[in-house]
Design goal:
five-stranded mixed beta sheet, seven-stranded mixed beta sheet, alpha/beta, 28 helices, single chain
Length: 782
Amino acid sequence: MASLTPDEFEEEVRRVARALWPQAEHGGPEMIDGREVDGIFETEEVSHMVEATMDRRVDKAHNVGPKLRDHLKRARSRGFFAKSWFVTYHPPTADQRKVLHEQYDKAIEVISYEQFRSKIIDAREYLKLRELVGWGSAANPRTNSSTDLVKYVPLGISASPGVRRAGIARPTRKTQREEPRSVSISDLVSAVESGERVALLGDYGAGKSMTLREVHAHLRKRYLKGATHVFPITLSLRRHYGQDDPSEALIRHASYLGFPSPSKLVSAWRNGYAHILLDGFDELAAPGWSGSPEAIRENRRAATALIKEFSQESKDGTGIIVAGRRFYFDTLAELGDYLFDGSPHTIATLSDFSAEQAKIFLAQFDESGAIPEWLPQRPLLLGHLAAEGILRGFEDSAGLAPAPGWEWLLDRISERESFIKQGVDGAAVRQVIEQLASFARQTPLGVGPVSMRDIVDAFTVVRRRPPSDRELTLLQRLPGLGGEEEDSENGTRRFVDQDLASAAQAAHVTRFIVDPYGEYQGFQPGHWHSAMEPLGVEVTAEQISRLGVQPGILRTALARAIKVDCHELAADLVGVAVVSSFDIPRESVNQQIISGVVVPSLELGEGGPDLSGVEFTDCMFDEIVLSGDPDAATLPLFNRCSFITVLGRLGETDMPAGRFMDCEFESFPDAADRNAAIMDSAILPAGTRVVMTLLRKLYLQRGRGRKDSALTRGMSGNDAALVAPALQLLQQEGLAVATRQGKNKIWLPDRSAGPRVRQFLASPRVGDDPLVAGSRAIGGKS
């Protein structure tokens, strides 16, 4: 425990006493027979006298002995129960114990502060039991163990103040900068110990659970060393869906661990002796899209009520950290409102591995293979690929763009599995993965969970027979899937990465485009939860390009999808048309209306295909990108739709006229204070403006890269002429990689360089980053 003064120690002991005996919550110091006593605490059954000391001398025992003895005598003479306590900061000395028991009364409890506090709860026992169960989605890729985990490799973490609801006061601690700052695990631990509320955000597989476990480990170590009297309680929220009472959640958690005194866990938290760590707010999945943005937001509010109650009811000085995926919420303001009731909080965001971090991580697997730019460098995905030895083949794939790259990767994963297991060829393994990915589209996150029954059904659909005993062994470790420790009795699995699931989900969409009237067992697009992620759309476009599919075939498939009420599938096909530059022009009687769909991303740009024959009604778009100056007559019609993020436009009045009817818009990141302000700035050199704009397009907008033709859109002729040398600078600095996707040249970012890019964007004219001087030199000063 941190150093205390004698008076502070006495008050701390009284605080423990009030927690032990809630009926005596108003107990405290009193004068008894002219002598001051540190604390008297009366309950219906027992009268407690407490003396506390940091003094190790035997004289202290002689000083308090008469008071403690007389308290017991008075109670006995009246027929009451009483207890006297001598609580020491350090373990009591043998001499102190001997004096009190032999010269005063053997019934005096001589006890250390640690022992006294443990009567509230045996925190050491809780922490020991907590180590025996899993940590969210964290698992050892080699063994699938959820407790015997690989060594934690620190990730990049950026932190910034969260969005506060109007009327909530700012925290008293002043923040020098509002921009995201780089923080460490130790910083997160300090924030929790300071009583802050923290949201830890990251993509699927980014290492949120491992990071939260690391914070828990640091807090645990500090408690066991005696550096603090507050210990961590860490819950996996997937076990608490539907709960809104923290006490009930803690009791369920304690019972799950086998902790013998669940109510004491509640008492410890309520009295300020426990920090709360909550893993997986995105596991509190709200029901599927109902056609109303307000309805789904209200569902999210209800689903996360437990977190808000923890935040509101925790004692001052105890911290809360909650981990989950950013895009579970529409906005960061909604996150702050739903999780922390609009109170001050910190947003901490995990980055993918840097090249050096990935190298350290992969060394645990004796792996040193190359990692392509398009492969997300997330711990969960890299761990699974390394454990299977798949990374060793990436040297030959360095020139692939994301869509053909994932095509190659799926084949490689499947071939590797068939080589190891024997009996089922690589093509069949891939088909099973793709079928299972289609089943996963029926879940809110698109990655699962899927049950063992689903896995067996996927095999049966592909092979037209149930699996043999030998094949069941393969299915239990199907590549690309991770275990679900929290539901291990049901044997559920999840795809280890959203990109892997998205790439595999393309196969069923491609098959439907080629033969929209075929009957396929296991093909259930009417049950899909949302449209595909952008990568899945790109992989589908890559597949139909290789098959030579023409625009008329895709239009036929779109009409069929809408006719059979498969609107998520129809939204997929529109996305494929955009990537493939296939027209869907308006026909006099065949307007294709897609309704009630959640669409992760849709990109519409100048020179793009004619999509005037498509109408989106009552749909929700996580993101829409409007690049350049597209012809409004060729855009789809959007009717009563909700848009979370709009890129490429300054605001609602800047949207193409006549195409967005009665729609709602949440955020315009490219508003006047962003790209437009950069390009209009008279104080920045022209080259710096262009480099900043390119970096924003590559790093701060969603997607896997940008078409070469899209990079100059929105620029004047003079600025556009500087794009080529600016891209050359970014290539030299390893910040942009050129590749091809069909006829298009695509520029890809190095996501591990995100912290460097954000630093430059925040300070483009100062510092020793080569970008500062390099960008200024492009085109001379202006």
